[in-house]
Amino acid sequence: MKKDLIFTPTMLLIGVLLFLLRATGMTAHIAISVVGILVLIAYTVLTKKDWKIPALEIIMRAFYGIALITGIVIMNVHGIAALSVIHKASAVLFMALIIVLFIHKAVTNKKA
Question: How far is CA 37 from the centre of its chain?
Fold first, then answer.
């Protein structure tokens, strides 16, 4: 749970900064997403054996990947609205799953 107490606020902060693209600019947006990847990889390596709901853990990481890939495609291909919708929806779902998984882990650890 200690790792979750570090990871969850860190990724929430990274997510909020990524949602502030207009304030941060594209260069910072890209740098923040790279930091997010590194944090997510480190967290995955450290906690893979402790996953309470493996399917949701994988789906959460997949949503980050989808947001990242669609973001890269959006930078190179302009004018496809569906990509923007997929990018934003996957980012929101990633953030929602972080919160849901954190609450679930906090509740199950409190019971134990």
Answer: 8
* Rounded CA separation 103/93 (Å): 15
Question: What is d(CA 33, CA 26) in angstroms, rounded to the nearest whole number?
Answer: 10
Q: Are 1 and 105 in contact (CB under 8 A)?
A: yes
Supply the pLDDT for residue 111: 66
Which long-range CB contacts under 8 A does 21-29 form with residues at least 24 apart? 26/75
Rounded CA separation 71/99 (Å): 22
User: What's the predicted TM-score (pTM) here?
Assistant: 0.87
pLDDT tens-digit map of 60-73: 999 999 999 999 99
pLDDT for 104 equals 87
The one-character DSSP state at 24 is H
Interacting residues of 39 by C-beta distance below 8 A, sequence separation 6+:
7, 10, 11, 14
